[in-house]
Prior knowledge:
This protein is of the alpha/beta class. It has two domains: 9-184, Rossmann fold, CATH 3.40.50; 188-422, Purple Acid Phosphatase, chain A, domain 2 (4-Layer Sandwich), CATH 3.60.21. It contains twelve helices and 24 strands. The longest helix has 17 residues, at 68-84.
Amino acid sequence: xxxxxxxxxxxxxxxxxxxxxxxxxxxxxxxxxxxxxxxxxxxxxxxxxxxxxxxxxxxxxxxxxxxxxxxxxxxxxxxxxxxxxxxxxxxxxxxxxxxxxxxxxxxxxxxxxxxxxxxxxxxxxxxxxxxxxxxxxxxxxxxxxxxxxxxxxxxxxxxxxxxxxxxxxxxxxxxxxxxxxxxxxxxxxxxxxxxxxxxxxxxxxxxxxxxxxxxxxxxxxxxxxxxxxxxxxxxxxxxxxxxxxxxxxxxxxxxxxxxxxxxxxxxxxxxxxxxxxxxxxxxxxxxxxxxxxxxxxxxxxxxxxxxxxxxxxxxxxxxxxxxxxxxxxxxxxxxxxxxxxxxxxxxxxxxxxxxxxxxxxxxxxxxxxxxxxxxxxxxxxxxxxxxxxxxxxxxxxxxxxxxxxxxxxxxxxxxxxxxxxxxxxxxxxxxx
Length: 432
C-alpha cells in the first residue's frame, strides 16, 4: 500500500473495507442512507455513539430537536472518553453540518486518533422511501430529507479540505456485499520476542554496518546476514544519505528483512528518499541539500523499486516483545502507544520539533526522553549524542552516536542490554 502510514482503505474490488484500530469512524449521509443499519451490522454495539439514541436518552424522544445541543455535547464527551482508552469509535449522526465534523475532528486530534469519514452515497428518492417505512424512530419526512440533501452536496465540496485522514464513499449498491475488517496496526507485533540486536542510524556507512554485524556474530549465508542463534536485527531508520554507500545499505537491509532476519522502522532520511522517488512535493521533501543531490544519480530502476518496497512498507514504530520494547527512529511519548496519526507519524520520524532552527540551520528539538516515564523500553536514534557511548536513561536509549560524522555505529543486544560498537573509517559528513 503506497501510503505514508496505515490508513483505512477499500480493496481494489471494493468488496472489503479495512480499518486500522484505533480510528474514529464518522458516518455521514442523509436520513435513510443506511448509516445506522451499517453500524449495527458491522460494529459492536458499544462502539457506536448515536446522536439519535442520545436524544432518546435525554428526552425519551429520538426526534426531539430541542435536545440536539445537549445530545451532541454528550456525544463528543463519550467519544473523547472512549478515545482516552484507545477504543475505536463510530460517530453515528448525519454529520452534514460542518461544525459537527469540526468538533469530531478536534476531539480526535486531541487524542491522536486517525479519522475516517464514511460517506453514504444513496439516492434521495430511495432515502425518502426508506424513511417513510420507519416505525422507530419515526420518519423525518421528505422536506427534511430535501434540506439534508442540499447540505450533503455542500459537504461533498467541504469535507476534503477539513483534515480527515481518509474519506471513503460507499455506494448503496455495494453495502450488502461489503465486508468490514477492523484490524490492529501492523506496527503492533507483541509476538515478535527476539532476542534482538538494535542498530542505530547508519547513513550509508555500509562497510561499518558489515563490520558491526560481524562483531554481533552474524554470518553472510547465500547473500543474507543471519545469526547462528536465531537473533534478529532491528534497524532504527536512517539507512540513507551523507555516507558513501546508501544503495549498498539498502540492498543489505532489504535482503535481511525479506529473509526474516531483520525488522526495520522508517527514519526521516528514509522518508526523504521515498518522497523523492515518488516525486512528492511536500515541504518534508523539499530538502535541497548536497547529500540528496549527490544521491540522485544512484536512482536507477532497481534502487527505486527497492525503496518503494522496503521503505514504503516500513512502519513509523514497532511494539515488540509483548509490549515491553518499542523501536522507533526519533521518539514516542507514552500517550501515543498503540496509535498512529499524522502527528504521531511525524513525531516518530522527526522528534519533538519546536518549529525553530538552530544556528546551523537544523531543527530545534525538545528532549522528549528526559520526561519519559513509560513501562516499555524505547530504543531510538535520530539526534546524534555528544557522548560516544550509548546510555540508558529513563528506560530509553539513543543509539545514534554519529557514525557518519566520525563517531560510532552502535548496536544494543536485547534483552541483555549490552552495547557493541564500531568506528568509521573516516569522517564522511561534516555538520558545518
